[in-house]
Specification:
GO terms for molecular function: carbohydrate binding. Keywords: Signal. By secondary structure, the chain is α/β, with parallel strands linked by helices. The protein is built from twelve helices and 13 strands. The strands form two sheets. Strands 1-3-2-4-5-6-12 form a seven-stranded mixed beta sheet, with helices on both faces. The protein has a six-stranded mixed beta sheet with strand order 8-7-9-10-11-13, sandwiched between helices. It is elongated, with a radius of gyration of 21 Å.
């Protein structure tokens, strides 16, 4: 979430050419839909006979972090490979801009909309309006109330699996004994799910005790976390704090900086989510960040796009879908013998970034038709 909500490393953005004025955004509409092609009978009629070409909008409430950039890139690449026009927008945490973007998208002729991290009741109402206008909708990590809107697919990372993978590793490195600091923030569906697993974990492992916690979702989450963890390290001298569980990589980044700065080799960090910045930090010499559980954000965007394409084609789709997590350890990264980033992580973690979920034969055929 990850990484997930509002990280401090702000990505470069452009003004949205669709009239979404005043918003931090990215819009790279493609002319693929104008390319003259001969569709076979295998291509769904609703797509083959769309004379204007399929148009999709991806709107994300959070932004400024690597996870957001990769999520949007994954959706855009998957859609463009099928000849669709895909526009993306990140509100960078601005609630008003987020909802304004959705409302404006209703009048821009889109066939489908992907909404990411719509965490309030207003998002539920927005989704209802989109569906009432005949626009297909897929959401990611959004308000549970959307489940009541017929025809929408709600996707998420398997947050219970993410938390379990991370906590099992934390249990392993601490030998089930020691004091923990917990970095978590309430109010987001993924965080609620992760917290439930964490609470059950503490009950099942009496030798591990939470002694401190911190959490905030803001534009400077990593900086605030670094300051908070620095204070914890002063409060708990060597031997009094053994590990930190960071439920979002923005937390882990700040904690990593604080532990390194304090020269504390006795404190280990286990996190959730991954990005290029995270991988770089984990590979630095004497890094305390020993493991993170994650789902490839590009794959999340791609799978969401496939589900939306199936909806536009009139095909059956599930009400919910969870994407499976993987554990990435510092030990795996070191064994690679080279710098590991998001592009070559699949060489280190088996199955990373690969999934044929919801990939239909007609999508593969479109890929061939619109291959550059």
């Amino acid at each position: 979430m990850k990484k997930r909500f509002l990280a401090a490393t702000l990505a470069a953005t452009m003004t949205l050419a669709l009239g979404l004025t005043g918003c931090s955004s990215k819009s790279d509409s493609q002319a693929n839909s104008n390319k003259k092609v001969e569709y076979s009978a295998n291509i769904p009629e609703k797509i083959a006979k769309d004379t204007d070409g399929v148009k999709i909008m991806v709107i994300r409430k959070i932004g400024g972090d690597d996870h957001t950039a990769q999520f949007l890139a994954g959706a855009k690449k998957e859609g463009q490979a099928m000849g669709f026009t895909v526009d993306t927008f990140s509100a960078n945490g601005d609630t008003a801009k987020f909802h304004d973007a959705i409302n404006q998208a209703m009048d821009k002729g889109y066939d489908g909309v992907i909404i990411s991290h719509g965490d309030d009741e207003a998002t539920v109402n927005d989704v209802k309006k989109l569906v009432d206008k005949g626009i297909k909708v897929v959401t990611f990590d959004s308000h549970a109330g959307i489940a009541g809107v017929k025809g929408v697919t709600m996707t998420s990372q398997d947050d219970a699996s993410l938390a379990k993978l991370a906590l099992d590793e934390l249990n392993k490195i601490t030998s089930s004994q020691g004091n923990l600091a917990y970095l978590w923030v309430d109010g987001f569906p993924p965080m609620v799910a992760r917290n439930k697993v964490y609470q059950d974990f503490l009950k099942a492992n009496a030798g591990l005790k939470e002694v401190d916690r911190f959490g905030v979702a803001a534009a400077d989450t990593s900086v605030q976390t670094q300051n908070a963890v620095s204070a914890m390290l002063t409060k708990y001298p060597k031997g009094k704090l053994n590990a930190i569980f960071a439920t979002w990589d923005a937390f882990a980044i700040g904690a990593d900086r604080a532990v390194k700065e304090a020269g504390r080799d006795d404190v280990k960090i286990v996190g959730i989510d991954v990005s290029n910045a995270d991988l770089q930090a984990m590979q630095e010499e004497k890094s305390p960040w020993v493991a993170t559980a994650a789902v490839d954000p590009k794959l999340i965007g791609a799978v969401d796009l496939r589900i939306l394409a199936k909806k536009i084609a009139g095909e059956e789709t599930p009400d919910t879908h969870k994407l499976q997590a993987s554990l990435i350890t510092q030990e795996q990264l070191k064994k690679a013998g080279k710098a590991v980033n998001m592009e070559n992580l699949s060489e280190v973690v088996p199955g990373w970034g690969k999934s044929d979920e919801f990939k239909e034969a007609w999508m593969t055929e479109l890929n061939e038709l619109f291959k550059k």
